[in-house]
Design brief:
mainly alpha
């Protein structure tokens, strides 16, 4: 018995390409969600924490 038919392979192939592309080059997705994250953080009243390795550490 065959695990996947040819039709199923054609359906899954673009999803795999999208997953791999997103893993290698996530910037298009992060560019889209960054404004929403900033608005949400403003609504909550919090600021984006600065990483301790880049600045302001004791």
């Amino acid at each position: 018995m065959v695990d996947m038919s040819t039709r199923e392979k054609w359906v899954i192939a673009p999803l795999l390409v999208l997953i791999i592309f997103t893993g290698v080059y996530p910037k298009p997705i992060t560019d889209v969600i960054t404004p929403a994250i900033h608005y949400t953080m403003q609504d909550v009243g919090k600021s984006d924490p600065m990483p301790s390795a880049l600045g302001g550490g004791k």
